[in-house]
Design brief:
5 helices; 38% helix; seven-stranded parallel sheet; Rossmann fold; alpha/beta; globular
Length: 154
């Protein structure tokens, strides 16, 4: 795989208080991204981010975690490439700018900021069980549909 030519898909979503359904969907999304020989980028911590990274690793993929903290040891165990920023939530801009397209799964206000940056920067975004009624997001109901849709957009 030539990494420079690989698609990079951002998976954004909440870091804690996730339902089992949300984690299952995030893991399925990560797995399917890896199966398409693409790289997964996320915030590198727990919840949706960890589940998506776990799925990507099961699928043989590469994961990047853009950490809000100053320590690469804060990354979840499925992150291959931890990027330490010390930027807190400002690291969300790095995730969005780096991704070719994004999938929002669940989410709270940090995810909402990533959605807003995606829209500001003209990045395609697909929503799965996330913030509703926002313009320019394609909403889907299942993980496979989220991945199929995001790859049609790039």
């Amino acid at each position: 795989m030539n990494l420079k030519d690989s698609k990079i898909i951002g998976v954004i979503g909440q870091g804690r208080d996730c339902s089992p359904e949300l984690l299952k969907d995030a893991e399925a999304v990560g797995f399917q991204i890896a199966q398409r020989n693409s790289i997964l980028i996320c915030g590198g911590l727990g919840g949706v981010m960890e589940a998506a990274c776990r799925g990507a690793k099961k699928g043989g993929g590469i994961t990047i975690g853009v950490l809000p903290t100053n320590h690469k040891s804060d990354a979840n165990e499925y992150v291959d490439i931890p990027i330490v920023t010390g930027f807190g939530e400002a690291r969300n801009i790095i995730i969005v700018r780096t991704a070719d397209a994004l999938i929002a799964i669940g989410g709270k206000y940090g995810t909402l900021s990533e959605i807003a940056f995606s829209l500001m920067f003209g990045k395609p975004i697909v929503g799965l069980h996330t913030w509703q009624n926002l313009d320019h997001i394609i909403y889907v109901k299942i993980a496979a549909q989220a991945v199929d849709t995001v790859f049609k957009l790039i």
